[in-house]
Input
Amino acid sequence: MKSVLKKYLNNELTPIKAERVEKQMLTQLLDKKQRNHWEHLLAVEGIERNSLPEAPKVMPQTAKIIAFNPRPMLWKAAVGAFLVAGSWFLMRPATSNPVEAYAAEMQAIIKAPEVRMGQNPSAPELEWQQARNAYANKDFKKAGDELQKIVEAGKATPEQQYYLGLSRFFQQNPNYKAAITAFLQAQKDGWIGEDELSWLIALAHLKNGDKENAQKPLEVLVAKNGYKANEARQLLKK
Amino acid sequence: MEDNSNKNFGLSRADFDEMREKLKTGDESLFERVFVKHFNDCRRYLVSQCNASPDDAYDVTVETLIRFRQALIEDKIGYDNLRFLFTQMAKQIYLKWLQQGKRLPTTTLDNQADDRAEDSDLLFDDETVNILEQAWQNLGTECKKLLKSHYYDGIQLKQISASIGQSDVAVRKRKERCMETLKKHFFELYQQLQ
Output
C-alpha cells in the first residue's frame, strides 16, 4: 500500500493533507467516470473511436450548426428543416404511435458498449464481453441474460444495469418491468445519462400501458427543459 | 461589435456565460451539445498537426474535454478564442501523453503537481481507482452529488448550503459523513483485495 494511502486510511494525516488525498482520489475517480460518459455520448452520436470522417467542405459554417443566433441562416434552416422533415416523413416507421417511434429511435441510436478486457479476464468480464457482442448483433435476449448473470453475482456497474434495461426493453418479448428495475438501479448508482434514463423509464412505462407511472419522469424532463423536453411535453398532453 | 462566435465554437458571449453558469450548477447539457459537434474537428487537428492516429486523437480529445470543463468551472478560461485554446490544450496533452509512453497525464490538484516531487505520492494507480469506484457504488445519490460538487466541481460548501437551503454546519457534517462512508467501504474492499 502506498504510504500516503496507508496513513490516510489509518487517520494519520493532518486534516489538510487528508482533504488533499480525498480530493485527489475523487478527482481521479470522477475523471474516469467523465471519460466513460463521453465515450457513451459520442457513441450515441455515431462518433467512433477508430474512424474519422473527412472534414465537411463548408467548414466555416460548422459553428453555425449550433449557433444560437440563427437569423442570418434562417432561410437555409427553413429549407433544411423542410428537407429533414420530408425525409423523416418518408422514412418514418409505419406506425402512428409516437411511443413506438421513440422506442425505435432509441434502439437505433444506442450502440453497443465498448468493452475493454485485461489479459486474464474474469468471469464477469467475459460475460460483459458476450453481452456486448449479443447487443451489437441485436440479440437482446442473450445480452440481457448475460448481464443478468453479472447482476446476480453482485458485480454490475451502472453501465451494465443500463444495458440490462435496454436489452430487456428491446428484446423480442420485452420485459418492461425488468427494464424499469434496471434503469432505476442505474439511476440510483449514478449512471451519468440521467435524463436519458428518465426518458427510457417513461417509455418503458408507456409501453407497459402504465401512463400513471410514466408521468413523473416525463415531468422531470419537461421541468429541465433540455433533453427530450418537447417530446415529453407532447406525451403528457395525450 | 465584432462577431467572435466562429472563434468560440459558435457561441456568443452570452451563450458562453450561460454554458459556464450551467456547468457550475451541474447542468452539462449545453457544454455537451457544443463539444460533441466539435469533437471531430479537434481530432482532425491532432491528426493533421501532430500526426496522431484517429484512435489516439479520440482519447486525447476526451481528456481535453475533461480538463476544459474543469477550467471553465474554475473561471480559468474566458470568452476570447475558445477554439484556439482548446486545440492548444489538446496539443499539450497529446505531447505529454507521448512523453509518458501513451499514458494519459493524471489530473492533479493544480494540474501541474505531477511534475512536483512533493505531490507525486498523491497520484493513485488504476487498481486503487477501481477499488474506489466499487466503494462509490455504495453511496446514495445525494452523497455522490455532494461529494462531486465539492471535491470535483470545486464548489464551496457555503454555496452548496445556500443552494439547497441548509445550514453550513449541516452540509459540512453531511459531507464528512459521506466521505467517512466512502472511506469505510474503500478500506474494506482494499483489505479484501490485498
